[in-house]
Design goal:
two-stranded antiparallel sheet; two-stranded antiparallel ribbon; DNA-binding; transcription; BlaI/MecI/CopY family transcriptional regulator
Length: 133
């Protein structure tokens, strides 16, 4: 991405880590199966270095957002979950980082609208009705 500076010369806009992670995850979700870092780089454009793509994939692996498996001398990557699963992972990480889980959950639940509250109740009832296996 190129933008013009105040002096009229061009410069590349530096993308934030979260933005790059989102772009990489979107590329992985569009794939038909596991893909290598080169495939991801091609989808994101030539202005993104291969090493940057590998760094972002490695960070996403550490966060549990992607999985990888060995394919020859390299790796192939895929999302660990769909968008809803990744959002749930982020929510759990935030909750895990708090010292008073009960207070956080209570605050979250009391701030829900009636439709979301009913949905949560239904999901909890469904979860308790399922046999453990």
């Amino acid at each position: 991405m190129v933008r013009e500076r105040h002096d009229g010369s061009a410069s590349r806009r530096r993308r934030g880590q979260g933005e790059l992670e989102g772009l990489v995850l979107a590329a992985l979700r569009s794939a038909d199966g596991p893909v290598n870092a080169g495939w991801v780089q091609e989808r994101l454009g030539a202005d993104l270095a291969y090493t940057t793509v590998v760094t972002i994939l490695t960070r996403l692996l550490a966060k549990g957002a992607v999985t990888r498996q060995r394919a020859g001398r390299s790796f192939v990557w895929e999302p660990a979950a769909d968008e809803a699963g990744l959002a749930a992972l982020r929510m759990r990480k935030v909750l895990d980082g708090e010292s008073d889980r009960e207070a956080v959950l209570a605050s979250f639940v009391t701030a829900l609208g009636p439709d979301d509250e009913q949905l949560i109740r239904a999901l909890l009832n469904e979860a308790t009705d399922e046999p453990e296996g």
